[in-house]
Specification:
The complex is a heterodimer. Chain A is an alpha+beta fold. Chain A is 56% helix and 17% strand. Chain A is flat and about 65 Å long. Chain A starts with 5 loop residues before the first helix and ends with a strand. By secondary structure, chain B is mainly α. The radius of gyration of chain B is 20 Å and the shape is globular. Chains A and B meet through α2, α3, α5 and β5 of A and α2, α4, α5, α7 and α9 of B.
């Protein structure tokens, strides 16, 4: 981004949000073609705005203007989808590589133990030495968990492929490994707790490992259900469900069955009558934004619906909390979806 | 828009006007093309895939004019003027194509509806395929690490220092890499959505 020139930055935003008059826009475009540095300033600012929007960190008038600009710019909507993916990749890279990268990033001349201590900024020299030892142990523990997680992932992939005695044996092994990983995780957690405040990054890593392990467990359960299945109707390739705002549905949460062959889940969210069907809406499932830039559509009955298509991975087995948000990112509807994953 | 046949001669003339040195001319050609793509996206609201086609049509037209000995003082400014003209032509054609047709209502366009996971797989593939040099892959991941940028406002300055580059040069490099990556991911996601 440009160095501290806020009026220039504001001018660029006005261009990107298409708020300039035709004459102003024409002059701006001429500058874009003549001034290389300026062109890359504009490009860079757009990237930053899109990344911040993708991470949910854009706020205030910038957010409002950005979302308004999305209406008329399919190019920018594509860019948001790309930014969500890129930021996810960056976050996974950071999570996966942080301990090993930190270990590798040395301070010339210092011992391995001292480098680790320095990285975690322990103040007292006597403490640094002891704390460094703990951090080394935790780091290697976490690296080991990372390797273990990756191996579990491969095992799950193998399980997906077959129903042979060999696959069943592996399933049992996988179960044992998960139990062992749980024990190691609990032990590491306990150690990190005792050093709370000094190893926050490791704690974040551990959280990531724990989440991944839970995912593997869910995957394993799903595989078992699929194996044991065979009874019951086949699940649809596209599962569609109508959701009414919480409190209005006579029978509680809407229900949908999601099977191995379900490629998409289509949620039709009925707007509460008090909600104005104007502007663009976004949808969160279990606290995670799954779609933005959604426009309500009117049904023959006169009801307004927001339709969103999501991957089955975005919903979990059991009750899911679905929240509809308006352009100002304010919740305008709560919904409950009960998913039965087969 | 009216098709223009790009000849090798016209293309060579355009490159020579951008820079006498062949390697720098190629770089400037790509740079000009990127500006045109962004012009069609930012000013006209085109999706990137259409903006790509319109940028190529613009450059073909400019090359053709050079071949016809049209006086062009400033290639960049001339390209912008041509792009505006191409956009007007394009708008007219779209209107004429639709004239009299009983077109169904087009549902409101939302975010691309490909699966996020498919897009992520595309990103992984493009990271290896389109961004070939490992140091470039690291650069793009580090430069656009928004959380690192929030924690440390000098994050990019420090990255530039670590890579031995000027901050401005790093920005240009990162922007170009991101464009390459975005294009690759977009095309991959479109193919997957079409079941190809």
């Amino acid at each position: 981004m440009m160095a501290g020139n806020s009026s220039q930055e504001e001018e660029i935003k006005r261009y990107l949000f298409r708020e300039l008059t035709p004459a102003e826009a024409e002059r701006f475009e001429e500058k874009l073609f003549e001034d290389s540095e300026y062109f890359y300033d504009v490009l860079g600012l757009e990237d930053d705005l899109v990344d911040r929007y993708a991470l949910g960190k854009l706020a205030g008038s910038d957010l409002e203007r950005f979302e308004r600009s999305l209406r008329d710019s399919p190019g920018r909507r594509e860019k948001v989808a790309g930014a969500v993916t890129l930021q996810r990749r960056i976050s996974e890279e950071r999570r996966a590589a942080a301990p090993t990268r930190r270990v590798a990033a040395g301070i010339a001349g210092a011992s391995f133990r001292e480098r680790l201590s320095t990285l975690f900024s322990f103040q007292a020299p006597a403490f640094r030495f002891a704390a460094g030892g703990l951090v080394i142990a935790l780091t290697f523990g976490l690296v080991f968990l990372g390797v273990e997680r990756s191996r579990l992932g491969r095992e799950v992939a193998l399980l997906r492929e077959g129903n042979s005695p060999e696959a069943r044996r592996r399933e049992k092994e996988l179960e044992e490994r998960i139990t062992a990983a749980q024990a190691r995780e609990a032990e590491l957690k306990r150690q990190i707790e005792s050093e709370r405040g000094k190893a926050l990054d490791l704690s974040e890593q551990l959280e990531g490992e724990g989440a991944e392990r839970e995912r593997l467990q869910r995957e394993l359960e799903r595989l078992r259900r699929e194996r044991g299945g065979g009874a019951g109707p086949p699940s649809p390739a596209v599962a569609t469900v109508l959701l009414l705002p919480t409190g209005r549905g006579a029978g509680g949460a809407a229900k949908v069955a999601v099977g191995a062959n379900t490629a998409r889940v289509v949620l039709n969210l009925e707007l509460d009558e008090a909600v104005r069907p104007e502007g663009l809406f976004s949808v969160e499932i279990n606290g995670r934004t799954v779609a933005t830039g959604l426009r309500p559509q009117q049904r023959a009955s006169g009801k307004q619906l927001v339709m969103v298509r999501v991957s089955p991975r975005n919903v979990r087995d059991g009750v899911n909390e679905v929240v509809l948000k308006n352009e100002g990112n304010l919740p305008v509807g709560d919904y409950e979806l009960r998913v039965s994953k087969r | 828009m009216n098709p223009t046949n790009l000849t090798n001669n016209g293309f060579q003339l355009l490159l020579a006007r951008l820079d006498p040195a062949a390697d720098r001319a190629a770089e400037k050609y790509e740079d000009l093309r990127l500006r045109l793509v962004k012009y069609f996206v930012w000013s006209c609201g085109c999706p990137e895939s259409r903006a790509d086609d319109l940028a190529d049509a613009t450059l073909d037209r400019v090359a053709s004019k050079l071949e016809q000995d049209t006086a062009v003082d400033n290639v960049r400014a001339y390209s912008l003027a041509t792009a505006r003209f191409i956009w007007l032509e394009h708008g007219r054609e779209v209107r004429e194509d639709g004239w009299g047709d009983d077109l169904p209502d087009v549902p409101a366009e939302t975010l691309p509806d490909d699966e996020p996971d498919e897009r992520y797989k595309c990103l992984e593939a493009c990271m290896d395929g389109a961004i070939r040099h490992p140091s470039d892959r690291e650069l793009i991941l580090a430069y656009y690490d928004a959380e690192a940028g929030e924690k440390n406002k000098d994050h990019r300055k420090e990255l530039a220092r670590r890579l031995g580059m000027e901050v401005g040069a790093l920005k240009v490099r990162a922007c170009r890499l991101r464009k390459t990556l975005e294009k690759c991911v977009r095309e991959c996601a479109e193919k997957k959505a079409q079941g190809l």
